[in-house]
Hints:
With 70 residues, the protein is α+β, with helices and mostly antiparallel strands. 39% of the residues lie in helices and 16% in strands. It contains three helices and two strands; from the N terminus they run ααββα. The protein has helices spanning 2-10, 23-28, 58-69, and strands at 35-39, 45-50. A two-stranded antiparallel ribbon has the order 1-2. A hairpin with a 5-residue loop joins β1 (35-39) and β2 (45-50). The termini are far apart. The relative contact order is 0.11. The model has no long low-confidence stretch (mean pLDDT 87).
Amino acid sequence: QKVQNYINELNLSFLHLLDKKGKVAQEYGAFFVPDSFIINKQGQMIAGAVGTQKWTDKSITNFFEYLLRQ
Length: 70
C-alpha cells in the first residue's frame, strides 16, 4: 500500500512493478535506487539508467520518439 500511495502522490502514469523477492533485480543487475530500464516491444532491455534522470530532456525524449517509430 505504501508504494501505491507514493505512485498516486507523484501522479505517475507508467507501469510500476514491485519485485518483493528481488528476482527481477537480480536478472537485470539492478542494485541501485532508482534504476530505470527501457524494455522494447520484444521484451528486451535496450537501455538503462542509474539514479535520477531528467526524463523531459530533449535528448531523452528524442530517444523515446525514435523507439516509438520502430
